[in-house]
Amino acid sequence: METRILEHYLQFGTYTNPGLYLDVLRRDLPDDVRQIGLRVRKSLIHRTTLAAGNTGTNADLKYGDMTLVPWYRQPEDDVLATAAAMLAELYRRDERGLVLDREPANKLVVTCRFAAILMASILKSKGIPVRVRSGNAAYWGNRDEPDECSADHWINQYWDREQGRWVTIDVDGSLGLTHIDPYDIPEKRFDFPAPTWLSIRSGAVDPQRFKYANGTRGAIVVLWALFYDFHSLMNSEIIYLHRPACGTQKRFADLTEVELEQIDSLARLMLDPDGNYDKLNEIWNTSREFRLLKGGLL
After folding, report:
1. Rounded CA gap, 9 and 13, in Å?
2. What pLDDT score does 221 carry?
3. Residue 257 and residue 190: Cα distance in Å, rounded?
């Protein structure tokens, strides 16, 4: 792997920058990736877990007793968009920081994107090249075969210098996955959006297999993940509400074949983001269509 590419994934972006907590993360947290991941996961409650309470995947209370979470606590995705914001709130609620025995009342209620951003922030602070990735996951449950539905999901990849490879990890799902190692997800078990998009475009894959958290299914779900993933590869892990204009629901149905081919070209480059690093950077620095976003107040 080229040094300049690894240096790129050591850089903080707007969302992964830990701010004034950089030295604290370096000093107070372990260096082992699994131990860091456990501390991150023990600091968070997924919004679906809070909604379900002490049932289903939390029947054993591995995520904490949801009855101890204040009744007024709502999902905080829209409030704590950056690692610096999450860290500030974690230390405000418990000055010990990312500890394993954090009380449920003091955990953050956020989704997978935020677990991945917080993990990336810590690993970068530790000098470990890491990137956030967006796509779809079909490996939930205890089966060896993928589920019929592949849900939108965000994970990480970090560079293992000894093995000389990117290791795919799922911190958000780490306490629930039992049939695969969440700290070394096998190849092709996570549906990265570039090959998925191209497979849908060629007719090889049913787009209805892919589902977004709001219930939306189809090719547009994979398109969203493609843009999230592209921006994340550029160290800009955009929030759920932000997408390029061609990825909005209003525009998607009216995309021309020329526009679709432009997206196909981006996806083909993203099949090998390291080998096509320079070309992806050129698109990032020149393409208004894929760089400028819509959504929220944009």
Report:
1. 10
2. 96
3. 28
